[in-house]
Amino acid sequence: MHEWKTSRFTVELPVEDPQYSEKLTALYQTMTGGFVLLPEEQWKGWGQGLWADADPELTAALCEQGFLVDAGVDEGLVYDCWMQQHVHDFSTITSKTMVTRKCNNRCTYCILDPEAKEMSVHTSRAVDAFYMDFIAEKRPLRVMDDYLGGEPLLKAGLVLESAARRRAFCSRKGIDYRFTFTTNGLLLKPALVRKFTAAGLSGIRVSLAGPREIHDRLRPTKNHGKTYDRIMANLQAVSGMVPITIECQYDSGVDDFRRLPEMLDDLKTRCIDIKEVHFSPILQKRGSSDFTCGLGDAGIALDLMKLAGQYGWAPEREAPASLCRADFRSMLVFDTNGTLIPCPGLREGEMAYGHAERGVDFVAESQLLHRRLPEKCANECALLPLCMGGCRLQALVRENDFSGIDCQHDMLMLFLKDFILEKAAEALAEDEPELLEIAA
Fold first, then answer.
1. What's the CA angle centered on 184, arms 196 and 250, to 5 degrees?
2. What is d(CA 99, CA 346) in angstroms, rounded to the nearest whole number?
3. Closest CA to 301 of 319, 278, 324
4. How far apart (Å, rounded) are the C-alpha atoms in residues 347 and 114?
5. Domain 89-334, CATH among 1.10.3380.30, 3.20.20.70, 3.40.50.300, 3.30.310.10
6. Is residue 354 left, alpha or beta, with left meaning phi > 0 and alpha meaning psi from -120 to 50?
7. Measured CA angle at 348 (ends 343, 352), to 5 deg
8. What's the rounded Cα separation, in Å, for the pair 96 and 27?
């Protein structure tokens, strides 16, 4: 008789529903994204090796989705193969371009040191030339770019010209092109949005830190001026012209998060058309900082995500992840001086592994790719495909090691369990006769 074992990347949760007399088990496979809901006793039977009595079709489905693997399979090798496919997947190419490190704000928690550096027209054209050659070589289906700062609208003309060049190039190649920019909102005007939209703008992300009092304390101008009301007025002016995402960072070390509904209420009252609201804790930065609590209580982050859902602004739900873009070869970061850097949170030119005018330094790049996973992560953790070691920048902050590990196991597991239970509720609502729902 063939011997199977449960994949180490399987997360299982008990599910109870009053309409069913028997207990159910929900399974999620963190590598394949497979989801199954089935009777608890049936799943226990597989765990006890009762393969002979198993439903052949269900067994095949569990194998196809990766919940069951051959008893002799080395899943470390499976993960390595899967990871290499993902980090070298060029079907979608993304970039973040730091057009300036100057900013008209002096946010108290900014991870970037204020530097008077900005991208020149010459450098922008060199970056775009390199990037278009890269796109032509990899032949993606879509390209998605984000322009960053500092405050990118301080270089609005450069952003517009760059995005227009990239869009025209991709259009000639039959590649879907879209771009966004992340802004503090102070320079956001309808005339600018109209010009950007013509160049392929698909959305904007605007940073807020809570209601007026909290936001103005955490995100003042460089002259210590207030910013909240100016940003809200600008959002009202561009509302409906382009999808707006609010990026709200909160201090997990204090109770300010309890007042975040005031900000959401204000957005509603002002009739600002919002697509999504993302909440994230203020992360620790290098050097002295008043914000050292990091993630804090992960339950707060989950509650805030659900709060956004109550307003109709929750991000599209998917399995949680804390992957680092530095690990993916399809995700580029261009610094103001034209260098390729692994993370936009680094200082100018820091850890550069190439330059737009000279190409990729493959020796330098190879040194960045090495990640030393602890034994527990590499051979035991079911959540490894969801983090691959986590945020390298946070590892650098805490351990001075960009190849270190940023373990957010408890946070990921909390969000994953909630995600699994939500999928189970959806499957039960569909009332599948066999209680089987497999997510593609």
1. 135
2. 14
3. 278
4. 10
5. 3.20.20.70
6. left
7. 60
8. 36
Alpha-carbon 387 to chain mean position: 11
pTM: 0.91
- Buried b / exposed e over 88-118, threshold 16 CB at 10 Å, is eeeeebbbbbbbbbbbbbebebbbbeeeebb
Q: Which of 153-157, 365-369, 435-439 has the lowest mean pLDDT?
A: 435-439
Tens digit of each residue's pLDDT (9 = 90 or more) over 395-420: 999 889 999 999 999 999 999 999 99
Average pLDDT over residues 238-252: 96
- pLDDT band at residue 49 under the 50/70/90 scheme: low
Matching residue, tokens 């390595």: 80
Min mean pLDDT across 8-12, 35-39, 307-311 is at 35-39
pLDDT digits over 271-282, tens only?
A: 999 999 999 999
Residue type, 75: E
User: 142 - beta bridge partners?
Assistant: 92, 176
Tokens of 146: 């984000």
Contact of 206 with 180, CB cutoff 8 Å: no
- Would you list the domain boundaries of the chain? 4-73+412-430, 89-334
Helix axes 121-138, 156-173, angle to 10 degrees: 20
Q: How many CB atoms lie within 10 A of CB 155?
A: 25
3-state secondary structure string, the chain? CCCEEECCCEEEEEECCCCCCCCEEEEEECCCCCEEEEEHHHHHHHHCCCCCCCCHHHHHHHHHCCCEEECCCCHHHHHHHHHHHHHCCCCEEEEEEECECCCCECCCCCCCCCCCCECCHHHHHHHHHHHHHHHHHHCCCEEEEEEECCCHHHHHHHHHHHHHHHHHHHHHHCCEEEEEEEECCCCCCHHHHHHHHHCCEEEEEEEECCCHHHHHHHCCECCCCCCHHHHHHHHHHHCCCCCEEEEEEECCCCCHHHHHHHHHHHHHHCCCCCCEEEEEECCCCCCCCCCCCCCCCHHHHHHHHHHHHHCCCCCCCCCCCCCCHHHCCCEEEECCCCEECCCCCCCCCCCCCEECCCEECHHHHHHHHCCCCCHHHHHCCCCHHHHCCCCHHHHHHHHCCCCCCCCCHHHHHHHHHHHHHHHHHHHHHHCCCCCCCCCC
